[in-house]
Amino acid sequence: MDTSGARVRVLPPLLFLVVLVVLLFVDRLVPLPVPGGAVRVALGVVLVALGLALMVWAGRVMLGSHTTVNPWGSVSSLVTGGPFRFTRNPIYLSDLLLYLGVAVWVGTWWPLFAAPLLVLAAQWLVIGPEERYLTQRFGADYTAYRQRVRRWI
Fold first, then answer.
1. What's residue 8's pLDDT?
2. 126 near 71, Cβ under 8 Å?
3. CA dihedral 103, 98, 96, 78 (to 10 degrees)
């Protein structure tokens, strides 16, 4: 049994944060404003709130299952309850909701245009290695879970 943890290439929240900060800086140099005023701000706040709520829920479920939230850590159990019933990656989905929410809230298109590439980067740098690790660690149980539950939503 492999106890070394997934060999992810980057800390997922850091990936989302660095891309967001860089693109907010780009927006300062070359503004691409999103229209909408108060409605846009309200939508951004809602996305941020949903992202935070999902992150807390997923974290609590993982910690309640006595496993790690550290993407490099060795997991002790396959978590399939709580938000993991709907998405295999609720914390990464929450990272994406926070990223999108901030972009909408501050009103810039740059992060929104980059979001599909960011999702692909997260899948290549983080989710792929984690899925390989979980398949090795939990075998048929993880394979069955993957067939039941979608990666993102």
1. 84
2. yes
3. 180
